[in-house]
Design a protein that fits this description.
The chain has helices at residues 43-51, 79-95, 110-121, 154-159, 188-197, 217-234, and strands spanning 2-10, 13-21, 29-33, 58-62, 103-108, 125-131, 175-180, 202-207. It is of the alpha/beta class. The chain has one domain (2-234): Alpha/Beta hydrolase fold, catalytic domain (Rossmann fold, 3-Layer(aba) Sandwich), CATH 3.40.50.1820. α3 (110-121) links the parallel β5 and β6. α2 (79-95) packs across α3. The radius of gyration is 16 Å and the shape is globular.
């Protein structure tokens, strides 16, 4: 297994990522999208990068513009920008000489929302896994005065009004929805609404007592194992 530091350009900014590669010829790849104020270096993404290659699956974790090591400012970030970043990440993986044609998407919170949008519009995305993902972003408007939310610009709040999962979820299949029933930021009902709108095959796994970040080690371990099993099956 090897880890390759990668970069690509998205609208004039440098996007930085880490590509975890197994010792396998032309493996499939899972592209992981982090949440609104997270980064590729979240503990869970680093752990996934260690586990997936052991199952002969490569994994790309990257920072959206305005986050982590990537260029740009969080105050200029929008959902549309992040969709564009993921689009370019998918194109990067498609052109990578060491990776095969099978691609899956995985995302937590806003990263899951963006992954669903891309999966609906890309016919060759084989499988999707979401963690703690919102069905709608409308509620963010009410939180704009809170500490972290205050770092976002007006364009972010205007942009979220242009996105809606309702008409596109039926185009997404092979999707696993993971949600904690004690999620304090995105209630578990959001996960159920996502699940209801998906095409078959699909599955929802509710983690008893799980919070938004699946903080407890056994909750996160269960989510990781289920995610890997699902992606092994459908990639």
């Amino acid at each position: 297994m090897k880890i390759e530091k990668i970069s690509f350009s998205s609208h004039g900014q440098t996007v930085i990522g880490k590509l975890h590669l197994p010792d396998t010829e032309k493996p499939p790849c899972v592209i992981v999208s982090h949440g609104l104020f997270s980064s590729k270096d979240s503990e869970k993404y680093i752990s996934l990068g260690d586990r997936f290659p052991r199952k002969e699956i490569s994994l790309l974790r990257f920072d959206f513009r305005g986050c982590g090591e990537s260029g740009g400012k969080i105050s200029e970030s929008t959902v549309s920008d992040r969709i564009e970043d993921l689009t370019i990440a998918i194109e990067f993986i498609r052109s990578h000489p060491l990776i095969g044609p099978r691609i899956g998407l995985m995302g937590s919170s806003l990263g899951g929302y963006i992954s669903l949008i891309k999966a609906a519009g890309e016919e060759d995305i084989r499988a999707v896994v979401t963690w703690a993902t919102p069905f709608t972003l409308v509620g963010l408007e009410e939180k704009r005065g809170e500490r972290e939310m205050a770092s976002l610009g007006e364009e972010f709040f205007q942009d979220i009004k242009t996105h809606d999962l309702t008409p596109i979820l039926g185009k997404v299949a092979n999707c696993l929805v993971i949600h904690g029933d004690r999620d304090e930021l995105v209630p578990v009902e959001h996960g159920r609404m996502i699940y209801d709108g998906l095409n078959e095959p699909k599955k929802m796994a509710v983690i008893d007592g799980g919070d938004h970040r699946l903080t407890l080690p056994d909750h996160r371990e269960r989510a990781m194992e289920m995610s890997l099993e699902w992606l092994e099956r459908y990639l």
